[in-house]
Design goal:
single chain, alpha/beta, Heat Shock Protein 90, Rossmann fold, 2 domains, five-stranded parallel β-sheet, about 20% strand
Length: about 280
């Protein structure tokens, strides 16, 4: 989230005292989605030059509380009572800050499905703290995610490189992101970074300068074609190869993608061998 925060000169702080390894009972990708949603809101509703502090604290009954605190304008009691309601932006719809009014609803539901609770504290003109609690794992070593055996063994792809390069994957579906990340990590030397929507993806492309971009077509805000056009029209990103990764498998979809300027087109569900070969060919 750093590139998004830097646009408004906002600093994300993780105090040194918080650098403690803890393991909770949760779904990895959904927990990441919760954090991304809270951080995204903390950036959007913060003030220019503000800060965001991420902290965690052990609580009774084997729970951990994670708090995301911003230095924005805060909310009054009436606004706090309207939070977590579908399509209710608590007055933000009158501003130029874009949103749908469902992000916090989804976040709350995800936390509750993982056996946790979520809440908020706010003071006007001082800021807001969103917190959520999850159950601590009693045996972190036994229950921590072991990712070395998640993917099946595959035949080696036709094209093999041992040079590690950076790949950006722009994808809003956590399950697809998880799958592709595991394929790349376990069957290639490359590093992968990700963005949940096109706007953040473009920011990362400009700041991180990846050697390859994997781009979903059906994205929130800007779709894949709009994102590709913006990438091609920017001097910093115009020459980066872009592969479409999408569930749109019709012939006309592939023809449209080729005409738009995608370097390759991979359909979901992903064929691992074809996918890896496409990545290596693009990077070659």
């Amino acid at each position: 989230m750093a590139p998004q925060a830097q646009k408004s000169n906002i600093k994300i702080i993780l105090p040194p005292s918080q650098h403690i390894r803890r393991c909770v009972q949760a779904d990895y990708m959904r927990l990441k989605q919760v954090l991304l949603n809270l951080l995204s809101n903390a950036i959007k509703y913060n003030r220019e030059g503000g800060t965001i502090t991420i902290s965690s604290e052990a609580y009774p009954d084997d729970r951990i509380r994670i708090t995301v605190t911003d230095t924005g304008s805060g909310m009054n009691d009436s606004q706090l009572q309207q939070l977590f309601q579908e399509f209710n932006r608590v007055g933000a719809e009158k501003t130029n800050i874009k949103g749908t009014g469902i992000g916090l609803v989804i976040t709350k539901r995800l936390v509750e499905l993982m056996g946790g609770i979520i809440g908020v504290e706010s003071q006007q003109e001082k800021g807001t703290s969103f917190w959520f609690e999850l159950i601590l794992s009693k045996n972190a070593e036994a229950t921590s995610l072991k990712q070395d055996k998640i993917m099946p063994e595959l035949d080696k792809p036709d094209v093999k490189t041992t040079i590690s390069k950076k790949i950006l994957y722009i994808e809003d579906n956590p399950n697809n992101l998880f799958l592709v990340t595991q394929i790349i990590k376990q069957h290639s030397p490359h590093d992968i970074i990700s963005a949940p929507d096109g706007r953040l993806g473009i920011d990362l492309a400009m700041t991180q300068r990846p050697e390859l971009i994997l781009l979903d077509i059906n994205l929130p805000y800007d779709d894949g074609y709009t994102v590709l056009k913006k990438l091609r029209n920017n001097d910093l990103t115009s020459n980066i190869p872009v592969i479409a990764v999408t569930a749109n498998a019709m012939k006309k979809d592939k023809e449209r993608a080729a005409a738009a300027g995608f370097n390759d087109y991979i359909t979901k569900p992903i064929n691992f061998r074809t996918f890896l070969n496409a990545i290596n060919s693009a990077l070659d």
